[in-house]
Design goal:
This protein is mainly α and 336 residues long. It has 2 domains: 99 residues, Glutaredoxin; 202 residues. A 5-stranded mixed beta sheet has the order 1-5-4-2-3, covered by helices on one side. Helix 2 packs across helix 11, helix 5 packs parallel to helix 11 and helix 8 runs antiparallel to helix 9. It binds glutathione (GSH). The site of glutathione has 13 residues, from helix 2 and helix 4.
Length: 336
């Protein structure tokens, strides 16, 4: 009996080591990879996830430019499974992250590179999302950077609002993960390159939405996310007043607005709009957010491409806070 168990364990360890070697990830260079050829059916194809901030940004950009594309939705654990570390997806992006834009079979890595690339390669007649004059272009680049999610968001929160987003999203993650089976998260423990992520989701799953913030660093991370976002939105408010609106550069809608649309959308998804906007708070940002939501690209790339797990997660988060004022204070206190 003992030797049978030993053989079984040996077999499992062998399978794990073999499978792990086939799912090795490594960093990829940003931008167009001309030397990689991927199977494709359409000129543009996009591998993306409904919740991912960077995926939303690339989708909004393609919608604004009117670029048709073949859509490849890829699950991250929060929407259902670790599809981003499947062998099939790692062949598309060995870094295991979404989004990936593919043009003529060549991948473009990093969402801020994807939107710049798409703006340069849009069909004739598309809206110009990049200004011609160098000063406006430099301002646009600075505002794209100030919204981007960088490689190390936890260490670079002051740098950009995108880096504050993972902290801000913690309560939504906790709400969404309630729907995801534990065995799906275990796949991440076995194969994800960053074990901290599946450990975080497993902890949230075990503690539940009402108690996750009392565990380890989660409460502090969330508070810091709120403080960082307050600072970034104050800067956006000042910029919109300075530019005179309606957009970040003034009269012309640009890639900077594409990049900030998704930050404001994440604030909505995590039920934080009332903390940062409205009721006299940041009037320029509030009006800007209303204008962004009125754009067809918002409906097409965000609302019509959402995932039911996100919608239910936001709803669950809202009702949990409404039913429990102590939880509301714990999840929102630092933002006030
Ligand atoms: N800087 C990259 C960030 C890409 C990234 O980190 N994507 C996240 C989703 S927003 C991801 O795929 N994470 C994989 C995971 O959570 O397992 C970009 O802008 O494209």
């Amino acid at each position: 009996m003992g030797s049978l168990v030993f053989l079984l364990l040996l077999g499992l360890a062998g399978w794990w080591a073999f499978e792990k070697s086939r799912r090795k990830t490594h960093p990829v260079p940003p931008g167009l990879q001309k030397d990689i050829d991927l199977p494709h059916e359409q000129e543009f194809e996009l591998y993306h996830n409904a919740l991912s901030l960077c995926s939303m940004k690339s989708r909004v950009c393609l919608a604004e430019l009117g670029i048709p594309y073949r859509s490849h939705p890829i699950h991250l654990i929060e929407t259902g499974a670790y599809e981003n570390i499947s062998r099939r997806f790692l062949a598309v992006n060995p870094a295991g992250t979404v989004p990936v834009l593919v043009h003529g079979g060549h991948p473009i890595y990093e969402s801020h590179e994807q939107i710049r690339y798409a703006a340069q390669h849009a069909p004739p007649g598309s809206r110009a999302l990049t200004p011609a004059d160098p000063a406006s272009k430099a301002a646009m680049e600075a505002w794209i950077d100030r919204s981007s999610l960088t490689q190390d968001p936890m260490a670079e929160g002051e740098k950009s609002a995108g880096n504050a987003v993972p902290r801000l999203t913690l309560p939504l993650f906790a709400a969404m993960i309630e729907e995801i089976p534990t065995w799906s998260i275990l796949e991440g423990l076995l194969f994800h390159w960053d074990r901290k992520r599946p450990v975080m989701f497993l902890t949230m799953k075990l503690r539940g939405l009402s108690r996750f913030h009392q565990t380890g660093p989660f409460g502090r991370m969330l508070d810091r996310g709120h403080r960082l976002m307050n600072d970034h939105l104050d800067a956006l408010e000042a910029r919109l007043v300075e530019s005179g609106g309606p957009w970040i550069l003034g009269g012309d809608f640009s890639l900077a607005d594409v990049s900030w649309l998704v930050i404001l959308e994440r604030i909505r998804q995590v039920d934080n709009e009332h903390l940062f906007l409205g009721a006299g708070l940041r009037p320029a940002c509030t009006a800007y957010w209303q204008r962004l939501q009125a754009r067809p690209s918002y409906r097409e790339a965000i609302l019509e491409q959402t995932h039911s797990t996100i919608v239910r997660g936001t709803e669950r988060l809202r009702s949990a806070k409404a039913a429990n004022p102590v939880l509301r204070e714990a999840l929102e206190g630092a933002a006030r």
